[in-house]
């Protein structure tokens, strides 16, 4: 029990030291962050940091922190606190971020809790944008906890729907596509020559 507390204290101290060193050196650069501080951090340029996992030829796992192309809204030089990571139901060793987590009711409950939604603007901004990309308004999803939450989440699930293209009378759908002879089935279209402007 005492060794667990000691390890937690060392981890908090290391994270605090990393923040102080970054502030002293002039800002956060994702590539300079340790993998324990990378996920949910924002660089001094306002780009989000992402943790990547690589497997070496020896089979050993290696972790690197990289700058993503995703911009944080009005945030720079930010390393997310452990309190927010826990309150929002996240994991420091997340590899990439997906809107799929919004489909999990237990995650959505933590994200929408006052401890997360009201206190962790970096995480809320990230998931607000992920939800918006799926056509869902995060405050509406949070307000719909319960019966309406399933409907809001089904909107996320159905966001991958692609509308069918135009159907040609020569082709039948659904079913197998019939072979088409371009020379006989589609006569060439004559195009009028372009006229010069007066």
Automatic annotation (TrEMBL):
Key word Transcription regulation present: no
Q: Which UniProt keywords apply?
A: Signal
Q: Signal peptide location in the record? A: 1-26
- Highest taxon, organism lineage: Eukaryota
Name under which the protein is recorded = PAR1 protein
One Pfam family cited in the UniProt record for this chain: PAR1
Q: Does the keyword Ion transport apply?
A: no
